Amino acid sequence: MSSIRAPRKRPKKTSVGGDLSAPTPAQWAKMTSYGSFVVTDAQGQEVVFRLGDTAAVLPGNKKIGEALELHKYWVVKIMAIRGKNVLATKSRGTRGKGKSEYWIKIRWFYSPTEVSWRIPGFQAAHCSKYERIYSDHSELVSALTFNELLSVQKFHEDDPDQPRIDCDQFYTRYFLKTSSKQAQISSYILKTSMDLGHSVGCICGKPYDVNSAELFHIMHLCPRPRCRGFYHSCCLLEHGYWTRMTHPLLRLSNSPDTDEIPMFASKSSKYAARLPADLLLLAAQPMVRGAALDSLGLAGNCHDVTFARRTVYAAMQGTKVPDKWRDCVDLAAAVVDSHLPMLELDGTGEELVLMCPHCHGPI
């Protein structure tokens, strides 16, 4: 547990995180601004917190020094640092000897449960215990409550280039606006429904449940720029969005960079012998995510499959495949065909592939 190098008096907290002993606006205006402050952890190591950092702070109902699992800490983003009676250099804002006091202006990351209290219909159950919802809710908190630095990764659900997010990693995919008369929540997505002309979610209207390990709850992405939607495999099957798998490399016709079918994709067999077999195998994978494929983390294999398809497209146009391309992907985890249900046409045994509801491309 981190501790400030000064006598520690536990600030009084309200149930929503407001600090009753926080400076008034007039007092805050008179305090000195700093770019950082320092705490000392349980091992005696200094931890520097700077403007813009994300950090874990001790919840108001916990005592300093009390053991606590990381996901149970409150999460904040540091917006401003001010102090009074601080005997230290302004550039670091570290504590000197004598009585001193730091107050930090933060923005809260809400827990899913807290958001469900404010947004009727928000389903906290579909979120991970490491999921946080960034907000515009700002308060002053004492530096005494800061525990450690954190990284909270932004999760763009419609991004085929979304980097990996491990299951025990903090992330955020929603933003909560509290400053309006009625709280509003929005997703971090690259293109809105207005941009695309259709919903960016599954046809069932349900969000991505990161906890559901049901095999048919795995979601498939259509990476085309005009689509960029994830769909539950069970929903696609139920509504008839499937077609015959006419070629093992059929999904190569679905590019993350163009709405058109790449002119060379139809000639993929011609190039297959010239390219690494495992690269082609990866490029032909469905872009999927879901708890049933936990080795892929929360964001699925989209990043690796996107890399593979772009590499294949470039090779088909004459660009040499990089010698160390395998270092850029998790090949073992991203090849998922053997972990997905085999879809076959009744009575014929013909293999099927799921289709995007909007462009009808193979996904």
From TrEMBL:
Ranges of compositional bias, category Basic residues: 1-13
Annotated BAH domain residues: 47-187
Annotated segments matching region Disordered: 1-22
Recorded GO MF terms: chromatin binding
Parts of the chain that traverse the membrane: none
The protein, known as: BAH domain-containing protein
